[in-house]
Structure formats: C-alpha cells, structure tokens
Sequence to fold (135 residues):
Amino acid sequence: MRLAIVDDERPTLEILKDNLKPTGFETVVFDDPVQAIESIKDGSFDVVITDFKMPGMTGIDVLKSVKKINQTTYVIIVTGYADIYNTIEAVNHGAFAFFRKPLNFQDFIETLLKIEKEIIDQKRGNKVAEERQSS
Fold:
C-alpha cells in the first residue's frame, strides 16, 4: 500500500515515516500541500495522511482536492487542533479517519491495516466480477 503523508512540519513527517517503516507500507512525505496534490494526481497513492492546520491549505482543502482527483483514495486527517466541528467537517467531506496528535501509533496502524484489507477485498471482488463477465 502506498501512502502520501502531508505535513508542514518536517520533524512530524520523519516521526510518521519512521513509525510506519515496520509496516512495509511505501511512504512518500510532502511538506508542501500544493506539491502533494500535484503528486497525488498520478493516482498511485492508496492513502493520503494529512495534517489539519498548514499554511496556505488546510487538511480539509487537501481532503477535498484528493476526493476530486479520486473518490476511492482514503484520507486520514491528523491534527493537534481537533474539535468536534473539525471532525464533523472532515467526515462530511469523506475522511476515513481523524486522529489527534500525539498519535496512538497502535490505533493508527490498525486503521491503516483495516484500509489495506478493504483495498484487497475490493480488488478481489472486482476480479471475481470480471471473471463472471468473461465467462
């Protein structure tokens, strides 16, 4: 599974990347949300993990842009500024999950594993449907 991590704070990016290394997920980090959106346009990311509060672009802006590019891309928002309104807005725009900083990495990784299982199940379902159509 390929992950894009978007956060304007380099140390946060490195912590996330380091903590995700043991999972085997391919991670690409971006400290500029505009650059991240440009890279995400190629459709090669399964999950986008974005900070909520960044200069020039919020996590909701990133979420909306990602969903315009590809509705099926999973988006997780991570923030130190969580409140009920931000959470509701994120869910209303299609966020899969919303995590508060500092992250509970066990819960975070469990969420990523759940996404990976959904992607695998979806691909299996698509393959079965294609086989039935060709029969």
Q: What stands out?
A: The two ends are 30 Å apart (CA to CA). The longest helix spans residues 105-134.
